Amino acid sequence: MRMKKLLIFCFLFQLLSFSATAQEYKYHTVRAGETVYSIAKDYQISEEAIYKYNPDAKESLDISSKLVIPLSAKKQPKEVAKQEEGAQFITHKVKRKETLYQLSKKYDVEVDQIKRFNKQLYAKELQIGEEILIPQKKESHETAVRPEASNGKVTSQQETKTREHIVIPKETKYGIARKYGLTVKELEELNPKVEVLQPGVMLRVGTDVLDEPVIITNKDFEFYEVKPKETLFGLSRRFEVSQDSLVNLNPALEKGLKIGMVLKVPDKGEGQGNLETDETEEFSDKEEEESAKIKVVLSEHLSNFKPKELVVMLPYGTNKIAGDSLSNYEDAILDNRVTRISLDFYKGVQMAVDKATSYGISTKLRTYDTRQSVQHASNIINTADFKNVDAVIGPLLQDPTEAVASKLQSSGVPVISPLSNREMRPYRNLFQSRPTDEVLASAMIEYLRENAIDKNVIIIADPSHNQIKNRLNRILPSARVLMPSDGYIGDAEIAKTLSETSENWVILESTSVGLLSSATSALNRLTRSHDIKLFTTNKNNAYEGDIVDNEHLGRLNMHYPSVDREFVSTGPEGFAKEYEEEFGMLPNQYVSRGYDLTLDVLLRLASAQDLYESFERFKGYTEYEENKFHYIPKPSGGFYNDAVYIMAIDKELNLNVANDIESKIQREFKD
Question: Which residues form the signal peptide (predicted)?
Fold first, then answer.
C-alpha cells in the first residue's frame, strides 16, 4: 500500500508540473486585504476571467485559498486577430443590458462572427465593461470567400470575388455550388435569405466557373458532398472507382479535397453509395463480420512519421489539493476511485508514448484536468488551442466526453472515450473504445448461436431479465426455460431439464446474488452426474462477492463476454514486466487500458494520414496486452469498438480466451 501511495504521489507531481505549462495558468494564494479586483489588476486580466475559473470567488474570497489564474486569457483576442491577416476590427466596451444580437445589428455583422473573434463568448454571456473585438466588413461590393484545405483547415487568406447568378429551372444548390467552385455551405452563407431555390432568383456566387453546364446529373452520375475527414482513398472505395477517375470527373480535386466540396460521382443507386439499401447493408455487415476475424499489426505499416499531437483529458481532481503542499493528498484524492483510475490510466498513456518512440513515433503530449465537470471540460476547449491536435483521449466520464466531442465536432478532431460502457450520443468525431454492455451481450449471443447447435440448452432467468431471455430463445428455439420468481432455484428443478447423454449448456441471466448463488451451487452438485457448462451474457457485480463461489464457476467452465483478457503478459521484455520492475507490482486493468488504447491510437496515426483514414485502410482488429480494437461506424454517426473476448474459467481458476481464432485454428490443426 505504501508503494501504491508513493507511486500516485509521483504521478500527481508530474501531472501538476505538466498541466500548469500546457494550460497556461497558475495558482494564486489569496493574501490578507486582496480582492478579486486587485488580483485581476495585478495579473492584467478581467475580473470575469477570474470568476470563470473560480466561480466560488463570487461568494467569498478566503485568505490562503487558491485561485486559478488564466495567464493566456488576455492574449486570446489579439492572437485570433493576427491569424486573420488583413482583417479589421473595432474594440467595443459592453454597456449595461447590451446583447450579442443588438451588437450584430448595430455593426452589421453576424453573431457567429463576433463569437469567432471572442471565443470566451461561446461559454458565457456578455459582461458589463468587457472589451470585445468587432470584425468590420471591407468597403466593397464584393464578398470574400476563404478557401479550405483538404483537412478542413484554412490555409490561405486569398479572396475570391463574387458575381451574380440567375437560377434557371431544375438547378440545385449542389449543381450551382459545384459550377462556381464553392461548397454548399459557402453558397448558403453568401445567400442567407434564400432558403428555397426558385427560377429567376439572383444568387451571389464565386467567379471561378467550371467549363461545363450547370445541370450535369444523369442516370450515370450524381452529386456527393464531401464530409469531414473523408479522403480520396475512402471515396474511391465507396464509389468503386479509381482515384484518377474521380480526379478526371472533378478537376478541382487536383488542388486537394476539402470539406463540403461537391463531387460528380458514379450513380450507385439509392443512398449515393452510402450503404443505405438493404442489399448493400447486408454486404457491409458481412464485410465487417469478416474483417473482425483478421488481425492487423499496425507496426508493420508505418508511413507517417510526422510528430503527433495528443491531448489527454481526465478527472485528476487537482483542484481538491488545498495549500501549497500535497500533505492532504491521501484524504482528498487517494480515497477517490475516479481519481485513482485516472492516475493509473495516465501512467499507461505515458508508457505507450515511450513505447511509440521505439517505432520512430514522436509525440507531443498535453494533459488537462477535467475535474469531473462538464463546464470545466468545455472551458478547456474554449481556451486551449486544439488546432493541430491529432486526437483527444478522454474525458473519462460520459457527460464531459460528449461535451468535448460536441465542441470539437466541427473541426473533426477525434475524441476517444476510454472507459464508458454506456451508449453515447452520435457525434461523428466520437470513438467509443470500450464495447457497451449491449455489444458484450450480442457477442456472447453470437458465440452461442455458432456453437450451441448440438447442445442441450437451458436458460435460467429472473423476471427482470425477460428481454435477454427472449433474445436467447429466438436464436435457440429448442432451449428449455426456467424462470424462478422467488430468487432461488434448487437441484430438483434444474435436474428435470438436464440431459444425461448430451452436453448441457446452462445460460444464467440475473443480477440477484441469491439466484446466482443457489443456481451455481446446484449446478456444481449436478456436475457429478451430468456434463454441464455455464454461460452468461453479463458477468455483473453480483458475481464478485464471496457468496458466489469461484470454484463452482471454475468447475462449471463458466463462459462470459469481457472487454479485456483480464490477465497480463509475463514475458521477459513485456509491458507488464517493465511496469513490475519499475513499481514493484503488476499493472492493473486501467494501466493496461491506458497503454493499449494510446499505443493503438499512435500506431494508427503513424500508419495513415489520420485516424479516419486508418479505419478505411485497415479493416481488421488490433490487439495489444489486454485489449483489442475493431471500430465500425454507427449508422447515426461516430464509431464504436465491437471487439469482445469470450472468457472461460477452468478448474484451476485460470482464464482462457474461448473465441481466440488463432488458438482455435491451432487446436483444430493439432487434433
Answer: 1-22
